[in-house]
Amino acid sequence: VQLVESGGGLVQAGGSLRLSCAASGLNLDDYTIGWFRQAPGKEREGVSCNSRSVRITHYADAVKGRFTISRDNAVNTLYLQMNSLKPEDTGVYYCNRIPNSVNWGQGTQVTVSS
User: Fold this and answer.
1) What percentage of residues in the chain have a pLDDT greater than 90?
2) Does residue 100 surpass a pLDDT of 90?
C-alpha cells in the first residue's frame, strides 16, 4: 500500500492550493479517507474526511468554509481544495484511511506566508 501526496507549495495568505493523494494497493472507494496535517512542533491533526458509503464529509472547525474534500474513484485519488489560506494552515499534509491507518506517505508541505 502506498499513499503519495502532492500539490503543496508556498503561497501568500488568501491564496489557494489543491492537494492530491494518489493511492496504490488500496481502493479508496472502499474506505473512509481523510486529510491530516502536522504543523511544526505540533501533533498531527485531522483536517477533513470523506466517508465510505454515503460520502458524508467532515471538516475541522479551523478549515470549514475554506477547504473542500473530494475523491475521484476512477483514478483512485483523493483531493483537498484549499482556499483563503492562512498562515496557520502551514504544515505537512497527509492522507490516510480512517480508521486503521496504513503506512503514512511523505506528505506534502504547505507554507502560507503572511
Assistant:
1) 93
2) no
